[in-house]
Amino acid sequence: MESLGFNYNKILSYIAFVLVLLDLQYEGVQCGKNGEVENHLELGKKLLAAGQLADALSHFHAAVDEDPKNYMAYYRRATVYLAMGKSKSALPDLSSVVELKPDFTSARLQRGNLLLKQGKLDEAEEDFKKVLKSSPSAKEEADARTQLIKCDQMQRLLVQTHREFNNEDYKTATAQLDTLLETCVWDVTLRELRAECYIQLGELGKAISDLKAATKLKNDNTAAFYKISTIYYKLGDHEMSLNEIRECLKLNPDHKQCFSHYKQVKKLNKQIMSAEELIGEEKYTDAISKYESVMKTEPNVPYYTMQAKERVCHCLSKNQQAHEAIETCTEVLKSDPHNVNVLKDRAEAYLLDEQYHEAVRDYETAQEHNESDPQVKEGLERAQRLLKQSQKRDYYKILGVKRNAQKKEIIKAYRKQAQQWHPDNFQDEEEKKKAEQKFIDIASAKEVLTDPEMRRKFDEGQDPLDPENQQGGDNGGHHFHRGWNSWQGFNPFGSGSFNFKFQHN
Question: Exposed, middle or buried by CB within 10 Å (0-12, 13-18, 19+), for 493?
């Protein structure tokens, strides 16, 4: 409550000091003959004038305790509360002053102002009218008349606002509520009404702001905490939703709506957190299963379904399930075509599936929407290299294996191809020449794909057996453009190292 009227309270603090210094006219009023009370009041007044609010407050507490019928003790304490920005605490003290001394116009005027801030228009109006009937000073009379006019304006506007709200003209109602809340800054009902307008207009962030203010203005506002939690939940912020619903249960552990919602949010939150932990541990199959559970737990909020599918797309891509990844990522991109994370994951799946043009296109789209992402830049360059490479010699295609094939699969495929295309199997010279070239390609593919470093370079879009990719003619110990003679005597069924037989004529 105090934070909402910060500027008002700064002004009020100044007024409070002025009131203390100028209100010496009440000093001569007989408020009681208790010497202890008078001592507390005097010390408190001096401390207040010196700006030592906490110490002043303790003396006024003591004065009230000593003499509960001393209206000046209540008034001084209310003044300190106002100076401290604690208007909520000041209001009961001002009411005690008015009850003990009905013609104390200064206290009644201050109470009327606080009631107006709270939106209690009828009560505020009554105070201002009584000020005018109590022989006020010229300034007090002017202030009271001004505030009476304000009360009347607010009452008329409030009637119009409810009419517009009931007619579902939420935009007009919101504008009118803005005006009302400029005066009635501490009115819980008005803030909750404006929050409802914002919800209907789809401005959920503004609705949350008003509802949070309502939780501060009203201590036991479980309804506001519940509504804030449900809004966060629909926005997909399950962690904030969980925090807010816990606040509701702190106020009332037996609140049925809050408890039911708490169980739902807690279950969903736990599943999502668990799935993300599994992704961090690279347990992608388990993470997919967990996100499928998320979709079953909350099938009615589109955000969670799309978030789950986005993460499943990521897991499938990381798990090298290219076809499934492409299918799931594409489904997400139909609803969110500029989702950079999904574009990156689908691009990787396309690379795995050797659809290089599509991978380049996805990375280019991702770059249009996030130029600063280093993964996009690196991925696009790699996809472009692989596309260029695919138009030349592709060792995976030569052996007929997938890009994620294990070493034993590569060796098995190599042996099969080498046996089929060994030149000694052909007698016709043309066929033998064709087989020789084919055999060289097969042997080259096996050499690259069974060497971890050479395979890594090839997967990044560089052909380690292409002289153009070498620097200064240094090929790192590998032989380039070997002819058929270089491979003669090679045993395709050996353990994996190259064996050569030198023939002498």
Answer: exposed
- Which amino acid appears at position 124 of this protein? A
* Sites in the chain below the pLDDT cut of 70: 1-33, 468-505
b (16+ CB within 10 A) / e for 105-143: bbbbbbbbbbbbbbbbbeebbebbebbeebebeeebbeb
**Nearest-angstrom CA–CA distance, 76 and 97:** 10
Residue 79: closest CA among 122, 38, 41: 41
pLDDT of 319: 95
List of residues 6+ apart from 175 with CB closer than 8 A:
none
Looking at residue 470, its pLDDT comes to 58
Q: What tens digit of pLDDT does each residue of 266-290 get?
A: 999 999 999 999 999 999 999 999 9
d(CA 292, CA 268): 11
Q: What is the 3-state secondary structure (H, E, C) of 142-194?
A: HHHHHHHHHHHHHHHHHHHHHHHHHCCCHHHHHHHHHHHHHHCCCCHHHHHHH
Q: pTM score, two decimals?
A: 0.69
Alpha-carbon distance 301 to 16, whole Å?
A: 52
**Per-residue pLDDT, 485:** 52
> CA 312, CA 321: separation in Å to the nearest integer?
11
Nearest 5 degrees, angle CA 33-CA 37-CA 39?
A: 105
The encoded tokens of residue 374 equal 């280093």
pLDDT given at position 33: 46
Look up residue 86 and give its two tokens.
């604690």
The DSSP secondary structure of 10-60, one letter per residue, reads HHHHHHHHHHHHHGGGGTTS-----HHHHHHHHHHHHHHHTT-HHHHHHHH
